[in-house]
Amino acid sequence: MCVGQAVPGEPQAGSLRYMGCTRLVHWVSREAAMSMMRYVAVVGVIACIAALGIAVALSKEGTGPVGEADSKVLFSEDFSKGMDDWWVEGGVKTWVQDGRLHMNAEPGGERRDQRPGYVCTAWCKQEFSGDVKVELDAHVVRSDPDVNNINLFLHYTDPSGRPLQQTRESRADALYKYYHELNGYIFTFLKDTSSEAVEGKLDRARVRIRHCPGFKLLKETYDYHCRQGVTYHIELVKRGGRLTITVDGKELLSAEDPEPHGGGLFGLRTYRTYLWWDNIRVTQL
């Protein structure tokens, strides 16, 4: 029974039954309100967790240009396993120390001296194909002729179809001309030692992109600097026929290759320079 019903023998004015029903209604209303508040709180927590998950996913994908969000890391090297994933051609000595690949191709002497070991190439054993981005750190320790030579090979193959590792003995002294006859790209970042540089900007860098075979110059520029004792973060990007080299976040050179290579090996190269390499990463674009 509730409001409006008389109960024999019980007071009717300010009915206790009326008061009980009113209190019940108030209690139910209060419980309903609290349930709604708990529901809203749970929904809010779930929304926050979902937002956090999205934020974490976006942070892992990075904030690079459109098209790189789904990029996949193909290779990462901190040299914790030594040189298991590499082989070397030429040089005075190549070794791993303090988590870095040290490459000594500086036997000393005058600028044009070609003593044994004055050039060196280190090849990554893993092959890469298609559009890629290569990132690494390079640091020149010493270069007697002050060339500070940092060279990078990308998408290298033998036109005969033979694996480069099988033909390594034919390039044992790492002479530059051997690599001009193979398929691939050469990215060069070094100190400009031309007469113009001596008269002008003494430490400006010379940057080049070449297509091999044929050692064809696709593009060249003089920009930034290439110094001893400085760690440079270098990025190479191959996307279709577009080739780009970026140093310390600054795009230095971009060129278009009308006959782009489809894939191959990646290599580290230097001339008359002792330097180290670290933090190498190759990403599929």
Structural class label? alpha+beta
CATH fold label of the largest domain: Jelly Rolls
Gyration radius (Cα, Å) is: 34 Å
- Helical coverage, percent range: 10-25%
CATH class type of the largest domain = Mainly Beta
- Give the tally of β-strands: 15
Largest sheet: 8 strands, antiparallel
The total of helices stands at 3
Contiguous low-pLDDT stretches (5 residues minimum) are 1-22, 54-67
Strand content: 35-45%
What is the 3D form? globular
Number of domains: 2
**What distance lies between the first and last C-alpha atoms, to the nearest angstrom?**
75 Å
**Level-2 CATH architecture of the largest domain:** Sandwich
Mean pLDDT: 83
- What is the succession of H and E elements? HEEEEEEEHEHEEEEEEE
SSE topology sketch:
Blueprint: H1 16-61, E1 72-77, E2 86-90, E3 93-97, E4 100-104, E5 119-129, E6 132-142, E7 150-157, H2 176-180, E8 183-191, H3 195-199, E9 204-212, E10 216-225, E11 231-239, E12 242-247, E13 250-256, E14 263-271, E15 274-284
Antiparallel strand pairs: 1-15, 2-5, 3-4, 4-15, 5-14, 6-11, 6-15, 7-8, 7-14, 8-9, 9-10, 11-12, 12-13
Give a structural overview.
The protein is of the alpha+beta class. It folds into two domains: 1-61, no CATH class; 72-284, Jelly Rolls. The protein is built from three helices and 15 strands. The chain has helices spanning 16-61, 176-180, 195-199, and strands at residues 72-77, 86-90, 93-97, 100-104, 119-129, 132-142, 150-157, 183-191, 204-212, 216-225, 231-239, 242-247, 250-256, 263-271, 274-284. Strands 1, 3, 4, 6, 11, 12, 13 and 15 form an eight-stranded antiparallel beta sheet that branches. The longest helix has 46 residues, at 16-61. It is globular, with a radius of gyration of 34 Å. Mean pLDDT is 83; it is low at 1-22 and 54-67.
